Amino acid sequence: MEIIISNNVNKPIYEQITSQIKAMIMSGELQAGDAIPSMRSLAKSIHVSVITVQKAYEDLQRDGFIETTVGRGSFVSAQNKEFYQEEQQRIVEAHLQSAAEIGRVCNIPLEKLQELLGLFYQEVE
Predict the structure, then answer these.
(1) What value does the mean pLDDT of the chain take?
(2) Which intervals hold domain HTH gntR-type (predicted)?
(3) Between residues 88 and 5, which one has the greater pLDDT?
């Protein structure tokens, strides 16, 4: 499992860890039941404190992405892929609502907004 930490983003390290592990679960790279590294092991491999990794793991466990058992370790949970997708869809809906309101206020035609969304959706970096 490869986690890449950047000091050039305005996102705390524990959130970078959390979001990357969530992305690995959502993409299928990590499957239900897969073991994830111990907190000490991950902290050592990415050169951060164990407390930082602990915070990330606590968030992942709270959100239902991993299950931790004392003495056994942490494993990918089987249950939360749909919940995460629903959460992400709510975020997208909020952004689209804001875009629609701005478009209405500025008299931008719906067709133009749809065209822009299509371009952004298909854009590959």
Answers:
(1) 90
(2) 11-79
(3) 5
Contact, 35 vs 19, CB < 8 A?
no
Over 79-103, what HEC string results? CCHHHHHHHHHHHHHHHHHHHHHHH
Nearest partner of 114 among 99, 93, 92, 98, judged by Cα: 99
Q: Give the integer Cα–Cα distance in Å for 21 and 84.
A: 12
- Cα–Cα distance for residue pair 119/61, rounded to 1 Å: 36
Given a cut of 80, whether residue 125 has pLDDT beyond it is no
CA distance 66 to 21: 10
**C-alpha dihedral sign at 73, 20, 9, 93:** negative
Which residue would you say has higher pLDDT here, 25 or 48? 48
Its pTM stands at: 0.67
Find, among 17, 12, 14, 30, the residue nearest to 80 by Cα: 30
What does the pLDDT average to over 54-59?
96
3-class DSSP assignment, residue 116? helix
What is the CB neighbour count within 10 angstroms for residue 102? 11
Phi, psi of 110 (to 5 degrees): -55, -40
